[in-house]
Specification:
- By secondary structure, this protein is an alpha/beta fold.
- Helix content is 61%, strand content 6%.
- It has helices at residues 2-8, 16-38, 45-58, 69-72, 79-93, 99-128, 132-144, 148-152, 157-175, 191-207, 211-224, 230-255, 261-268, 283-298, 303-316, 333-348, 352-356, 359-378, 385-394, 432-441, 475-484, 490-495, 507-520; strands spanning 397-403, 410-411, 414-415, 423-428, 446-450, 466-471, 500-504.
- Helix 6 (99-128) packs parallel to helix 9 and helix 9 runs antiparallel to helix 10 (191-207).
């Protein structure tokens, strides 16, 4: 099996190829680990609420009434939350009790799985690209595309499902016998491998139901283009069906009743309505669509065309679609880009006058990509997670935080119980005069949350009494902005809110503390 895999991966035909593969896999692994540690938080709230809050519920740390819509209507598969709940119980048993450490372990697992999918696709590139130059570019694009490490570091169903899908696809292509006329297509596939591929595909589907479109495309490609044996397709289908059965049992343990979650998702879920929408008009949606169209037209029989076309059609024709629904294709983004560009560039090479003008834009694009890669891999995916982690370590038990407006442990009116300290309480104030009254009547320390570093004008009376304890960003950033008189836009402030915890003390209490300190001196 391994001998066939290395042979199909081109290790025996090109002595320089293995060195290139291992070199970039090593660099990619480092980038993935950095992103897993640094890229805390989430890109979309569903990444948190459909995974972390389900885990939190199973750990007994939050009630079912706080879970999102998907729980109440039995739309969310439980495979991924159950697996990560097991990881959490193990970490708790060895004394790791910080939820931020738990979340980091989930990101490390997601990054490792995504890296394995890249490893499989890298080996398959030996079959997809006969030209050594484009093969090298495909490897570089796979591992250095700016979003790859941070997307793979997500504890989302899209990431886990997409990574599993491409691991299965790589095993299918590399583990099958070679077809002389079409080496990029799988030949005869061993029964055990066919069943194993089916089981991985079934697990991918149980992580994220939208993978059904990609799995359908793969099955059709095997039957129509690759002309695989009926036994191979049957065994793959058997593996998929097996995991659907296992997933139904796991969903029973999660919901407490027997329900067929894929059907609930199909009939009620917002992602699978009958197509009634229009093409996504956003710039990113149009750009992605044009790229896929170029890929499909130039490579109509390629496996990536057959798996991406059904998913993109469902994405474009579904009213409530978001770009995150295309994330299962993220691992193959680099290859898709090279397959799109290579034929066009090869034709342009006949006209050196035009290709010369493409060098500068290409260099600018490469520099921009690498800059983005460094930035997004080293910053939190959700900036306020810095504040929440400091709050957890600052005083995890037994204190009350006052706030005005929306509770900062809520997003879209849904509580963030997973990251909440166990014994913290919150008090909503309608007006800052209420806090002033508290400080005047009771000589105690009060804690105030403010979504920005500076208190608003309406809290001007509190400014001498309240001092920042800590904030999302370091104080020197605010001091620099103040000294240089830089005014940030309202939109920028909302996106990168400098959440701050203030320690507020009444004048009498401050006076007493100063007197005590002077007596001690």
């Amino acid at each position: 099996m391994l001998d066939r895999l290395f042979s199909r991966a081109g290790f025996k035909r090109d002595s320089a190829w293995p060195k290139l593969v291992f070199q970039w896999l090593s660099i990619s692994l480092i980038l993935h680990l950095i992103a897993a540690v640094k890229s805390a938080g989430f890109f979309h709230p569903n990444e948190h609420f459909q995974v972390l809050e389900f885990i939190n519920f199973k750990l007994g740390r939050s009630p079912s009434s706080d879970l999102p819509f998907e729980y109440q209507h039995f739309l969310q598969p439980w495979i991924l939350p159950f697996f990560l709940t097991g990881i959490t119980r193990f970490l708790s048993s060895i004394g790791i009790l910080n939820p931020f450490d738990w979340a980091m372990s989930y990101r490390v697992i997601g990054a490792a799985l995504g890296w394995l999918s890249l490893a499989g696709l890298t080996l398959v590139c030996a079959l997809w690209f006969q030209d050594k130059s484009w093969r090298r570019w495909s490897v570089l694009a796979l591992h250095l595309l700016w979003y790859i490490p941070v997307i793979h570091s997500r504890h989302s169903s899209e990431n886990f499902g997409g990574s599993l899908f491409f691991i299965a696809l790589s095993l299918l292509i590399l583990g099958s016998s070679t077809r002389p006329k079409h080496p990029e297509q799988p030949g005869k596939c061993p029964p055990g491998l066919s069943l194993g591929v089916g089981l991985i595909l079934g697990l991918a589907f149980e992580c994220h139901f939208n993978l059904a479109w990609m799995i359908l495309g793969l099955i059709l490609w095997l039957a129509i283009v690759a002309r695989s044996q009926f036994k191979t397709i049957l065994l793959i289908s058997t593996g998929i069906t097996t995991w659907v059965g296992i997933g139904t049992c796991v969903d029973f343990l999660g919901y407490g009743i027997w329900t067929f979650t894929p059907w609930n998702f199909l009939s009620q879920g917002s992602a699978w309505h009958w197509p009634t929408g229009a093409i996504d008009p956003s710039p990113s949606g149009i750009l992605i669509l044009l790229g896929f169209l170029a890929m499909w037209v130039q490579h109509p029989l390629h496996i990536l065309t057959w798996i991406s076309l059904p998913l993109c059609l469902a994405f474009e024709l579904t009213p409530s679609s978001e770009l995150r629904f295309l994330l299962p294709l993220a691992s193959a983004g680099g290859v898709l880009g090279v397959l799109c560009i290579a034929p066009v560039f090869n034709k342009l090479q006949r006209f050196p006058r035009y290709t010369k003008w493409l060098k500068l834009p290409a260099k600018i694009l490469i520099v921009y990509n690498l800059t983005q890669l460094i930035l997004v891999s080293t910053f939190p995916a959700w900036i306020p997670i810095r504040f929440l982690s400091r709050l957890y370590l600052f005083k995890p038990y037994g204190f009350q935080v006052n706030y005005k407006g929306t509770n900062f442990f809520e997003i879209q009116n849904k509580p963030l119980n997973f990251y909440r300290p166990l014994d913290i309480s919150f008090h909503s104030i309608l007006d800052y005069s209420e806090l002033i009254q508290k400080l005047t009547d009771h000589e105690t320390t009060q804690w105030l949350f403010n979504p920005q570093y500076s208190l608003p004008e309406e809290a001007s009376q509190l400014k001498p009494w309240c001092h920042p304890e800590f904030s999302t960003f370091s104080p020197w950033i605010e001091q620099l902005l103040e000294k240089t008189s830089i005014t940030l836009s309202h939109q920028f402030k909302n996106k990168y809110s400098n959440w701050t915890l203030y320690r507020c003390q009444s004048p009498n209490l401050l006076k007493n503390q100063i007197e005590v300190q002077m007596d001690e001196d």
